[in-house]
Each structure stands twice: as structure tokens, then as C-alpha cells.
Recover the amino acids of this structure.
């Protein structure tokens, strides 16, 4: 499973494992979640037949998050011991080549899948990661980030019920051909963004905000 749950006593968020080059491994999360996580934060992830939990220092020591200058995105470079990596992390990482690096907008009939952990993941028993589908309702728009006082380029998605999925990866499952009634053949797996949170419009309708994945490339150049 390529996602993990970051959690402390008061907050929970989703993160995703990314591999850049042959031996550069990262955990990617939203910056507002990463800033709340100290050395004692737990990382919860799906094992073969159970959910596993470890202190974040098993993955990276020291714990040094690198933050995007304008977007709500952060990466943690991992340096686990070889035994821990081979036992628990092997084959979990999404290659950076599968992360969309373009700035082209998503077609509004794109079928997207979001992976993440529900808020209940903080409770004993540890809920496994779940997946939801959604579609874009906008191209990139610019929003003011009250925490940074900087504009934030996001894409608005449907399915506001996906609560607690901050940092969760968004995958494009298939693209449709506008000249055909049926979907075109499925495309290779492509990650197109990360969930930032929810937003309401003037009519109090809730939507999801997605950070386009192109901004991850800024951090991993």
C-alpha cells in the first residue's frame, strides 16, 4: 500500500510514499499536517494481514521536512535502516515518473480516485485506508491561503464527504474521449494531485481542494 497515516494525539493526515531515482525515497504530506508532527508521531500503514504502526524516526532520523514555498505541500527524505526497509517498505513507493509533471488542466469528465484515512483512523483498531472516486469541477483556481498570505493554485473536486484525507494522493483512472459515449481505454496509473482540504462556496456547498502534482516536482528536482 502506497499510503500511510500520520497521527498524533490531536491530528491525523494521509501521506504517500514516493521514489525519485534509484535510492531516493520520500514521504509526502500536506505542509499544515507535517508542521504538527514531531519526532514522536506515529506512521500507520497497511501490512500483509494487519495494520502496522511505527514512530516516524524509523523512517527518517533526523526528521527534517522540506516545505514548498507557496503550496501546502511537504516532503520528508527517508533514511531507514536496510532491515526495516526490506521488511516493511519494499515495493510501497510510487515512482516519480508516474507523478504528473504537466500544468495542463484535467478534463472535467476525468474519473479520479482518492486514497486516504478517515478521521477515525486515530482511534484504537486503526481503520485501513479507503478509496473514493471524484471528478474535477474546475480548472486551476487561485485561492488566498490565510496561513501563508500567499495565493494557492488548486483544483476543486466533488465529494466533500471525503473528510480527513488531507495529503491523500489523487489518481487518474481513465480518460474519456469527448467524441465517444464510452470511456476510452484506461491509461497507465498517473498521480495528478494531493488533497489539501475542503472549501465552501457562497451557498455553503462543500468541495475538495486538490494540489496539482506538478508542485511535487519543485521539491524533488
Amino acid at each position: 500500500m502506497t499510503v500511510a497515516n500520520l497521527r498524533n494525539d490531536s491530528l491525523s493526515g494521509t501521506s504517500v510514499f514516493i521514489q525519485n531515482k534509484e535510492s531516493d525515497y520520500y514521504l509526502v504530506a500536506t505542509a499544515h499536517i507535517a508542521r504538527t508532527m514531531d519526532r514522536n508521531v506515529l506512521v500507520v500503514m497497511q501490512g500483509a494481514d494487519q495494520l502496522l504502526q511505527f514512530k516516524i524516526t524509523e523512517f527518517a532520523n533526523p526528521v527534517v521536512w522540506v516545505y514548498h514555498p507557496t503550496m501546502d505541500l511537504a516532503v520528508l527524505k527517508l533514511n531507514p535502516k536496510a532491515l526495516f526497509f526490506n521488511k516493511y517498505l519494499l515495493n510501497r513507493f510510487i515512482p516519480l515518473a508516474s507523478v504528473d509533471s504537466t500544468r495542463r488542466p484535467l478534463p472535467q469528465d476525468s474519473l479520479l480516485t482518492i486514497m486516504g484515512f478517515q478521521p477515525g483512523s486515530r482511534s484504537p483498531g486503526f481503520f485501513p485506508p479507503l478509496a473514493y472516486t471524484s471528478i474535477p469541477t474546475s480548472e486551476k483556481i487561485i485561492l488566498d491561503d490565510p496561513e501563508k498570505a500567499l495565493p494557492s493554485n488548486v483544483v476543486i473536486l466533488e465529494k466533500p464527504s471525503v473528510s480527513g484525507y488531507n495529503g491523500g494522493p489523487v489518481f487518474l483512472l481513465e480518460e474519456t474521449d469527448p467524441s465517444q459515449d464510452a470511456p476510452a481505454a484506461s491509461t497507465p496509473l498517473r498521480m495528478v494531485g494531493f488533497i489539501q482540504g475542503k472549501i465552501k462556496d457562497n451557498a455553503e456547498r462543500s468541495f475538495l481542494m486538490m494540489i496539482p502534482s506538478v508542485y511535487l516536482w519543485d521539491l524533488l528536482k
